[in-house]
Specification:
single chain, 100 residues, alpha+beta, three-stranded mixed sheet, 3 strands
């Protein structure tokens, strides 16, 4: 992870815990979504944040390709599991989709 980014985020981690309890940075990735899905499939890591400086196979909604060249942005995926909500999992999933 770039030092300047790490220094900027470090003071915020306690405030957003459990989000970013796992924080992984890749200078180049195929897709942050694919990396997040693999991480989730290995048993959870809810709250993990995957960051990339460039994506070579990024995708958006409905399978659309996502143009994400180096130096033009920070590309992020977060592992969340609203289906494990304590109350109403279906409602939690809908609200999360709306919020995002």
């Amino acid at each position: 992870m770039p030092d300047d980014f790490h220094a900027a985020v470090q003071p915020l981690l306690a405030a957003i815990h459990p989000i970013a309890s796992v924080l992984q940075y890749f200078p180049v990735a195929g897709s942050t979504n694919d990396l997040a899905l693999r991480l989730a499939a290995r048993g959870g890591q809810e709250g993990a944040v995957i960051l990339a400086g460039e994506q070579r196979a990024g995708r958006g909604r409905r399978g659309r390709s996502w143009f994400s060249p180096s130096g033009s942005g920070l590309y992020v995926s977060v592992v969340l599991v609203p289906g494990r909500a304590r109350e109403d999992a279906v409602r939690a999933t809908r609200l999360l989709t709306l919020a995002v």
